[in-house]
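retry 2 of 3: previous attempt timed out while embedding acetamide. Reduced batch size to 1 and resubmitted. Inputs unchanged:
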Amino acid sequence: MHIVPIPSRITYYGGNVQHDAQVKKEKITNASLGNEGYIIRASLNGITLSAQTDAGLFYAEKTLEQLRCYSSIPCMVIEDKPRFAYRGFMLDSARHMQTPDEIKKLIDAAALLKFNTMHWHLSDDQGYRIESKKFPLLNIKGSWRESDDFGSMHTGVKYGGYYTHGEISEIVRYCAERHIEVVPEIDLPGHTTAIISAYPYLSCRKEQIPVQTTQGIFDDVLCMGDSRTLEFVYELLDEIVPLFPCERFHIGGDEVKLNRWKECPKCKEKLRSLRTDNFAALQSDFTKKVIEHLKKHGKKVTVWNESLAGGELPEGTTAQMWMDRKKHSIAHANRGGDVIISDFYHYYCDYPYHMTPLKKTYNYDPILKGIKPEAQSRVIGVETPIWTEYICDFDKLCYMFFPRFAAVAEIGWSEKDKLNCRNFERRYKGITPLLQKIGIKSAPASHWNPTPIQRLAGTLGFFKDKVSFEALSNSINSQKN
Ligand code: ACM
Ligand code: ZN
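retry 2 succeeded.
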């Protein structure tokens, strides 16, 4: 059967169920199903969906939707539950925005594939994307850039906008109906040019700077020595938190350059008060305070792995591993901290199939080497990000995301011993009519796994056209902090 993600167990009994067979839903007590598992019984008497929870019943319906692609459904029992509790995708709406209708299409696809988290990246150097009533300059200035200058793409046209509170609430509601949590990300204290462009007093130099129009990692970050920074951040978060009733909140923390802090008298004074000469400790101290503040709102905080460079973060903090040469995420898991795996080389869908073929994504084991056996359960799940510097329309976004999006969904849901890329590809082709109905156009199958020669040529071409080597090496060098 073409079911993605592949279920834990299917037992066939012979015979077929008609499409118009009656479907019954029931809540049952069966601890082995957990919060998201379900059972489907398809027999000559009809179809029964059973689960302990509404989420379980919802996933049973999504499996049934896939079974309905066939002219008849075999008599069978499907018993199914997820491998990981956290199964996410990340959408960057800061570099390029998607319309609410486009986002809903992604959410429908995510629901079909049993993702339960949409991580929504809403603030970066190239734009601030949440309506702010408290800080209107965030929208008047921070939501607009003068042009798009990404790689070889130069538009010369002003670009921008933001999501209103009403639009955000609608997306959150749409997700909730599909058992998906929306986790917003406000990236702090780096990737904050858009915020600084609106309120320059938040930076070390206090100079007016424009919203960035290029890809990169930029010097101007929030000043860690000025008390007004935390006051602003707390007030901003107080405004944002009520829009997102999820358990988690993401505060970024990736790729923070230290240059400005090293030359800023206030930051240096702050560092002395922390009794260290490690400038990364400034980020750590700031992050701890923001985590404490969000705890008061009942939030569990996620950070990108670099946030761990300046020392341990409060208990309960989740690290999102994307590029972690220093293995801070592994140490975090071994200390009992939760980790989400979003490995750059495998799960980043903004990189071409030449660089990250489908089978490379699919075959990556998220249980990182170095995590002790007793700490492996600290890997709470997987997430596939898509960054949108070079992705300014929805068809391109779908081309890059699908089928890798579905591969990560399967890794998140299905048991390791069930995973087989060839078999996945066949099943994925079987469910593409459902994705097409949603409005998702996948990459053609001939692009999924390029040959080694194609990979080399395609990867070189990508870097020549799109990414500046400087940006990439900055990114890799930032890991040395
Ligand atoms: C990241 O890709 N900078 C998290
Ligand atoms: Zn400073």
